[in-house]
Each structure stands twice: as C-alpha cells, then as structure tokens.
Amino acid sequence: MKKINLFLAYFAVMVMVLTGCSKDDPGTSNVPDSAETATLQLGPLLNDAETRAFLKQEEQDIPDCTGETPGFAQLSIIYGPDDTVKEDIIVAIKEDDQGLFTAYSEDLELPIPAGETTISVTLTEFVVWTNVGGNPGDVIWVAPIEGSDYADFVDQPVGANFTFDLRAGSKNYVNVDVICYDNRDVNLYGYQFFTITPIPLIEFCIFGNYCTPEGRHFVASYSVNVYESNDGVKGELIHALLNNVIGEGSDAYSDPLCFFVPDLPNVNDNDEEYYVEITLLSDTPGYNGPDIEIANGPISVAEIKLFFGDNGTLDYYHFQYGCEDGVPPPFGEPGTKRYKACIKYLDSDDNIAGFAYLSLDGTTLTASTSLVGLEQGEIHPQHIHENASCGDYGPVAIPLDFADGTFPSADIVVGPSVFLNYSEVIPGVTLSNLQDRTVVIHGKVVDDEYVVGEPVACGELEEY
C-alpha cells in the first residue's frame, strides 16, 4: 500500500457538522443611542423607453422587461459611525401620481449620532420583487452594482459610491435606477444571487497544480463551473469562473480561485449541496494538451465548512492533476466510481461526526476519513462492514488501516476539538457493491475505561 497525503486540514469548524451553525438574525445591529432619526424612502426608476431604445440601437444587450407589477424592495444599506452598521431590509413598494416609492418602515428609521445633524448612508444592493398573495414573488427589476456588466446601463449603480446624507427629522426620498431582470446569470448585475431574506454566504476556494509525466510541478490554469445540486445531480449554473496563471513556466503563479454559495439557514448542511466541475486549461505551463475536465462531483455545505479554520481562516481545496496526490475528495476524476458516508455517533451521548470517502479503480481502493470528537491520543480502528445499515452493519469486510497494519489515532488538536484524518491507497480489493456497505469507527470510553474495539460511530455508504 502507498500512503497519500491527507486531503483535509484540521478545522475547529467541524463542530458545526455536529450541532449546526448558529446564525445571526438578519438585520440586527448595534446602533448609536440617539433621540433623533431620519426616515429613508427609496424610489425605483426603471429605464425609460427612450433610454432603452437607445441602448437597443447601440446593440447593448439590456435585459427585457416582463411588465409585472412591483410589490417589494430588498435593499442593503451601510451607515453609522465609520460605516459600521449594515442592514438588510425588505419593504413594500407603493405608487402615487409622482411614481413608485418604498413604504414607510421602522427599519428605515435611521438614528442620527449624538451631536450630529446628518448621517451618511450607502446603498449597496437594491432588488425589486413582485407581490404574490402578500409575499414577495419573482425578481423583476435590479439596480446593478458598481463594476458589474450592467453598471453602464444606469446613471448611478449601487455600491460604495452610492452615498448620500440624511438629515435629522427629515423624510428623504432617494431615487434608484433599476433595469429589468430576465433570468440571466445574476453575476452580470454584480450580485451572487437574489434572496428575499438575507441568506448567509459561505466561501469555497480552489487551487491547483499540474505535473508533467516526469513529475515536474507547475501552477495550473483552470476553469470552475458551480451548479445547484440535488442528490448529486447538477442543476442551474451559479458560477462560471476562470483562474489563469500569471507569468510563464516555473515562474508562473496564481492565487486560489474563491467563490461564494448560499448557506440556507433552514436546510441541514449535509442535505444542501452544490455540483462542481474543474477543467484544466490548455495554457497551463508545462501542459501540452487540450482543455480537459479533470474533476467533478457534489459537495455539501457541511463538507465546505471542513475548510473553515479557527479565527476566520480558510483553507483551499488543492488538486494536483498528474501528480502523485491527484484529485482528492470530495471530487473525483470523471467516470470514477465514488462513495461517501456521513459518519455520525451511535450513542447520542457522544459528539462524533465526519465523512468517509472511497473510490474504486479496478481492485485499487482509495480511502479517506476525516472525523472530529474522538478520544484524544487514542487509536481508533475503522472498517468497511458488510451490511448497508448502521442499525445492523454486520461483520468486517475491509480494514481501513495503514500499510503496516496500524490504525489511525485522534491526535490532532485545534482549539477544543480533536481530529482524526486518514488517507490510504489499498490494492487488491475485490469487494463489490460498496454502496451497500457501512463504515464503522471503533474506540470509546466505557465505565471510565477506553475500549479500543467498542463501536462509536457509523456511516452508510452511497455512490455519488
């Protein structure tokens, strides 16, 4: 057996896989004490017919309008001392003989700092929705963000420069230029996506290398497509991204490619997933072939959070195409059979969680596990078991051990968390139907004594 490098670093955020993330309530903030306020109201202004006709004549690809009636506005503002307060607000839209405007809302009553007569406000996002039964329905108009593809379609895009002063005791109407939305990629407007309730975003980063047949390493140039996903099946495209190297040959360099995806507050992190495709590009230094898709597969929010570290740090997913370490889980090379188990405690008094990944190429099995919550410093035997259910996992089929026959120990400590990481290539495996097997972790304290053979956690394998 040949040892391969561990595919995940050791992150305290793994605890979130156990208990779920605690999420701040949207729109909450600490505002300065003040007896005076200014009330902000916004009026969306759709490109008029003359402007739209000019843009069409100039062959600019401005989105088409649906003609639906606006019902709600979703907006984000920044204000307060040193721009420290951020509010995400949803408010109804009204109309009179002077046009459209946002309804009065206590959320738009902004406190004036003590000793001041005005407050500076920055509008960073503005999206208009229809009204369906008293609730927001579909996005119809959007104010482009500064620097986006559609920013030139309006006189004043929203963003860091859309700043204005509100005076104490006043009611201020501020006009916002909007254009129509027609289900194009939301990135063209400068938004990652549109959410009628502020949804937390999580970041995921990818970095890659290419190795020549002789083993020389180069920084890879690659593209990444990110899709919505359900049970491993890709849906609508969210991101289409490029990461090209800078410079040539061995002097070339590149930063990790990072992007954001939603972390829905009411969806289990293990159920919420995205599908990723990574393509090695032909301009990769040292590479003389065509563009080739080298990795794909789903990744859950729980797996993304494995890359979060202590104190806000973030590690990246690192592929090495053509190199010894190859394409690590959770993605795999196209066409390979891959299996995953979400590992969970057997006894609710324990706090153990993690993932096991398997891939089978002929009779060569690549196995990886990453677990948190085991006994620090203790050896934890782990096996593939014969049966498909953690309720009856049956006898051992294959040990997940090292080349010398030893099992891994939980000896990685990050803050209050204890981790076990394991990865190994195991030849000569003839076990079939891995999707009908389980992975069982052993070793727990029973009556104040550590029992190495006692089952402590289990996960049911499924192909993905």
From TrEMBL:
Transmembrane regions listed in the UniProt entry: none
InterPro entries per the UniProt record, alphabetical: SOD-like_Cu/Zn_dom_sf
Any one GO BP annotation for this protein: superoxide metabolic process
Family affiliation: Belongs to the Cu-Zn superoxide dismutase family.
Protein's name in the database: CHRD domain-containing protein
Organism: Christiangramia echinicola
GO molecular function terms listed in the Swiss-Prot or TrEMBL record: metal ion binding
